[in-house]
Amino acid sequence: MPRVLPRRRWGEGPWPWLAAGSVALSLLALGALLLLLAGRGLGHFWPAPVALVELENGHRLAGEAVKEEPPGEEASGTRGRERLYRTANRDLDAGSWTWVALEAIADVSHPSELVVLERRRWGDFIGRLVAVERDGRALGEGASAWPVLQARLDALQALRDEQARLRRESILPLAARLAAGPDAEASRELALANARRRALQAEADRDRLVLESVDGRRLEQPLAEVVRAWRPNAMSPLEKLAAWGQGVWRFLSEGPRAANTAGGVWPAIFGTVLMVLLMSVLVTPFGVLAAVYLNEVAHQGRLTRLVRIAVRNLAGVPSIVYGVFGLGVFVHGIGGSLDGWFFEEALPSPTFGTGGLLWASLTLALLTLPVVIVATEEGLARIPDHQREGALALGATRLEMLARVVLPMAAPAMLTGVILAVARAAGEVAPLMLVGVAKLAPQVPVDGDFPFLHLDRKFMHLGYHIFDTAFHGGDVQAALPLVYATALLLVLVILVLNLTAIFLRHHLKVRHGALPRV
């Protein structure tokens, strides 16, 4: 009689070790990715030391050392090791980056008087501060110019805050009143507000800086164009840490500048979170109702199986196809009809017949609908039949059984579908390029004017911001740290949204009890 060997179980042999190794490798890869994004992105806000480089030929330059290239990278193999410096001063040198051969360097020092200015135009300036002038009269020269500059920057920030408050509280509301119809009082108040704004701007334009590059070239700089100034070589570690924290906060709270290569990403953060929340509100009821119908109501025949196959196939359709569908059906079809019915006086300028927050949210809801349907239906299938039969035996109607027994027990599976939908929708870029995302939209689509949430407005998105900054910027090297920082921020936003849904799912599991495995 042949000997029967016992079947080897999954817990025996190398399989558990291979599974654990795969999980560990995945976690290591994820950790390496986050470390790369954090190091390259958050390190951008640390005040880097500025080096004064003297070359063998007598030329001098000042800049921040960025990286070094090993020798022999050209085909000839004759090039030596080189170092890349961010020298800024684009208005003086027609460029912000300089490669320097290491063998050509005679001396490198870090003088404490070197100043870095962040400007609204022409990028940063690196050099020396000669004087601070007001109406042509010197307020400070030489060593005394630096404290005067700090005081004038504080006064300039107060003027900017007053201008922003005036625009937000007076100019924009009065302009909206005039747009609704003739109003003599609003017109008079708007003229006074504009006069006050011009007076504030004239006050800010009175100050000028006299700057000098390290090779002796002088430059007059309007102080109104300067955002901030610092001397990194004279800063202590605590001062640098404080400056780093302020830089991170500005990145999170301000809008972009200089073609997205400077400033912050607050409009993109707000637009991403708002779009994902709207998408979740739109997709969840439709996905849950579709899953309930397929699993609880529809006859389980060939047609239902074909519908399930179609739903699963829709999950694999490329996202750009959904973008084309949203552009044709939502934007041009429904949006164009809404403009013809309700906004005819605004034509030919479209209101809903162009990309906006509503159409982007609907397109991504359609994109993620199969994910929610499949996850919810799998959760419904795991609920034992005796739960349904017990509710019906106690006198509950079929609707009461679904609403009070089945759906609460399937809520964790529904939230699993929402989590997967959020993770996919927050990172999608291709469909948004067709249905509402903008390169620059500094005004968020929520304000104090009725209806408060403006679904017709375009918005910024972190994923598209990364794409635009990395590939469409004028200075890719300068934008690269912001790309890493924005990518890290996008990962963190998705993580926060997912953790919120995960905690809610855990709460529902505890409340309704764990389902038996089938």
Per-chain topology:
Blueprint: H1 15-42, E1 51-55, E2 60-69, E3 82-86, H2 90-93, E4 97-101, E5 105-109, E6 115-119, E7 125-134, E8 137-141, H3 145-180, H4 184-204, E9 207-212, E10 218-222, E11 226-230, H5 237-253, E12 256-257, E13 262-263, H6 266-297, H7 302-314, H8 319-342, H9 357-381, H10 385-393, H11 398-427, H12 432-435, H13 462-472, H14 476-512
Helix pairs in contact: 1-14, 3-4, 6-9, 6-11, 7-9, 8-9, 9-11, 10-11, 11-14, 13-14
Description:
It is built from 14 helices and 13 strands. It is globular, with a radius of gyration of 30 Å. It has two domains: 203 residues, no CATH class; 247 residues, MetI-like (MetI-like fold), CATH 1.10.3720.10. The C terminus is likely disordered. It is α+β, with helices and mostly antiparallel strands and 518 residues long. 56% of the residues lie in helices and 14% in strands. One of its GO terms (molecular function) is phosphate transmembrane transporter activity. Keywords: Cell membrane, Coiled coil, Membrane, Transmembrane, Transmembrane helix, Transport.
Provide the CATH top-level class of the largest domain. Mainly Alpha
Return the CATH architecture of the largest domain. Orthogonal Bundle
H and E string:
HEEEHEEEEEHHEEEHEEHHHHHHHHH
Q: Tell me the span between the first and last alpha carbons.
A: 37 Å
The poorly predicted ranges are: 514-518
As a percent range, the share of strand residues is: 5-15%
- The CATH topology assignment of the largest domain is MetI-like fold
Mean pLDDT: 85
What is the CATH homologous superfamily assignment of the largest domain?
MetI-like
- What is the count of structural domains? 2
The chain-level structural class is: alpha+beta
Helix segment count?
Answer: 14
As a percent range, the share of helical residues equals 55-70%
Number of strands: 13
How does the overall form come out from the CA principal axes? Answer: globular
What Rg, in angstroms, do the CA atoms define? 30 Å
Question: Main beta sheet, described?
Answer: 6 strands, antiparallel
Protein name: Phosphate transport system permease protein PstA
GO biological process, one term: phosphate ion transmembrane transport
Coiled coil: 149-212
Family: Belongs to the binding-protein-dependent transport system permease family. CysTW subfamily.
